[in-house]
C-alpha cells in the first residue's frame, strides 16, 4: 500500500497545489466564513475526489486492470500518456495567458455564499471545472486500479489520496479555525501572491505532471 501511495504522491500534491482553490478558502476565511463555508467547500473538494476516483477504481478492477497482461491494464497506460500530452498542451496555453491575473468572476460573490453553494463550488472546482485536477484524478484512478492490493487497502489508498489532495486548501481553513482573529493578517499576503502568480504556478505544474504521466505510461507499456 505504501508503494502505491508513494507513486501517487506527486499527483496528490499537484492536486493540492491549486492556487484558485486555496484563494477561495482564504476569501471565505477572511470574510469570517472559514469555519462554515470553508468547511463545506473543502468537504465538497474531498468528497468529489474520493467518489470519482473510487468509481474509476471499481470500474477498472471489474474489467481486470489489476492484471498486468490484460487489455484494460494497457488501456490505462495509453490513457495516462494521452492525459500527459493534454497537460503539456495546457501548459503552453497557460503560459500564453500569463499576463492575465484576474481571478474568476465567481470569487467576487464568495461573501454571499450559503453553505450548500460553498459545498457545490468545492465539488465543481475539484474536478468538473478544473483542467488540471480532472485528468489527474483520472490518472490516479487508473494507477490505483492497477495495484494488486486487497479491497480494504484500496479503500484506504483512495481515502488517503483524497486527504493529500485537499491538504493545501486546509491550511487557511485551519488558521481560520485556530486563530480567527489573525486571519486577515496572515492570509492576505498569500492571497495576493497566489493570484498574481497563478499562471506561472499552473504552467510549471502542467509541465511537470505532463512529463510524469507520459513517462509513467511509456515505462509501463515498455516494461
From TrEMBL:
Pfam families, per the entry: SfLAP
InterPro entries, sorted: Gap/Sap
Keywords in alphabetical order: Membrane, Transmembrane, Transmembrane helix
Membrane-spanning residues: 6-28, 40-60, 72-94, 106-127, 154-178, 199-219
Top-level taxonomic group: Bacteria
Protein name: Sap-like sulfolipid-1-addressing protein
Lineage: Bacteria, Bacillati, Actinomycetota, Actinomycetes, Micrococcales
